Amino acid sequence: MAAAATCIAVVAVAMAVLAPGARGLDRRADFPPGFLFGAATSSYQVEGAYLDDNKSLSNWDVYTHTHPGKIKDGRNADVADDHYHRYMDDVELVRDLGVNSYRFSISWARIVPRGRLGEVNSAGIAFYSRLIDALLQKDIQPFVTLNHFDMPHELETRYGGWLGAGIREEFEYYTDVCFKAFGDRVRFWTTFNEPNLLVKFQFMLGKHPPNRCSPPFGHCNRGDSRREPYVAAHNVLLSHAAAVRNYRTNYQVTRDG
């Protein structure tokens, strides 16, 4: 999960809608009514600012610093594309692609740095609010992914990541904070990015934090590749269900999401 070369590198396919030399032309009038064509990023890969404004260390922040051999060229995303400070420029780049939607993930560690035991980070809320407002001002529909493989490192330590049942309440709390803060402007939500790969790489192959696996799938210092992926998947599914139930019960009708 090394940092992307640029904020829009992961969505270069979107350039297919533009003719050569057409940078900055608005092609969205050519879309059928209701058609959304977009770009996507993940918070860890683009934001940088890994300790700015009261954000806590995420599992990936710690992993890339303590397991350099697991990451190509020993890189980390402490700075990445510096999207946290350059988001307005990045919104302009997305606008120049001619797309009308943008999916980004929220850093759990930036919103509730210590989970339910700590406070909501107002600076993190303010950053994503500015980003959402900037997108809407450009007529770009924001799509929010609530978890893209990352969580506060403290929660990974406290619960063993997705292995501990307590992580379900943590995820429900975190997602509720997001629904309250951004739901007046965000209609489209994704709970987990590729949960099948999350479980596979974290608890079967051990290639992502918390780096748990066992032979013949991998050679980690700890883990059980035959059992733990199912435990983690169970908790991910129940966390998803809790977030969806909360949204449908308390937010969907009033916020048309």
Automatic annotation (TrEMBL):
Task: Fetch the Pfam families from UniProt.
Answer: Glyco_hydro_1 (PF00232)
The EC number(s) given in the record are: 3.2.1.21
Which EC main class describes this enzyme? hydrolase
Checking InterPro entries in the record gives: GH_1_N_CS (IPR033132), Glyco_hydro_1 (IPR001360)
Give the catalysed reaction(s), semicolon-separated.
Hydrolysis of terminal, non-reducing beta-D-glucosyl residues with release of beta-D-glucose
One GO term (biological process): carbohydrate metabolic process
Q: Which UniProt keywords apply?
A: Disulfide bond, Glycoprotein, Hydrolase, Signal
Molecular-function annotations in GO: beta-glucosidase activity
Q: Where is the signal peptide, in residue numbers?
A: 1-24
Please list every transmembrane segment annotated in the UniProt record, as residue ranges: none
Signal as UniProt keyword:
yes
| Family according to the record | Belongs to the glycosyl hydrolase 1 family.
Protein name as catalogued: beta-glucosidase
Question: Organism source for this protein?
Answer: Zizania palustris
